Amino acid sequence: MATLDAEGELAFAPAPEIERLRRDHVQIGPRMVGGSEVLAGVAGNQLDLELDLEVEPGSVFRLGILGSAPGSGGRAAEETVIEIRRHDVGDPVLRLDRFRSSLDPSVDTEEKSGPVVMSGGRLHLRVLVDRSAVEIFANGKALTARVYPTLGGTSVRLSAEGAVRLLQLDAWRMEGIFGGPRPLFP
After folding, report:
1. Cys staple from 33: which of 97, 113, 114, 164, with CB 3.0 to 4.6 Å?
2. What is the pTM of this model?
3. Exposure pattern of 62-100 as b/e (b: 16+ CB <10 Å)?
């Protein structure tokens, strides 16, 4: 759904009807984000995640989704990473890192990125995950892509470099709108 923001720019948000599919609410915060942590009680391949953040200049926030069990070196073998990088000068950047999203060498894993406006370092991030579809809304700017995990990963991970404050995270598992299972690949 598109509307005009206070500056007359297009702002995007998911259709409000999506909220009827939410189940099993988990709320986290406020607290600082540091290092890397898999979120207990937040997992799945159909998720609705809402985060309110304060990101200081020179800091990076990462949200890993669809993470599989750790491989060598303790990192998930597959994981899709949503990154907010706030530089000391210039616009912050929203980046969708799909490099480790799939072990299937035939799928597109090219990164997607773009600028995002953050007034006072604040960010409202909404992420919808529907198996292979990922939709990201960052302060009204939208970024969507497909990912094709092969290992069935469901973990959600937060990490940060620098000063990142998680004001609040709300997470829901999402019910499907279809009567039965759907294949992962179209």
Report:
1. 164
2. 0.89
3. bbbbbbbeeeeeeebbbbbbbbbbbeeeeebebbbbbeb
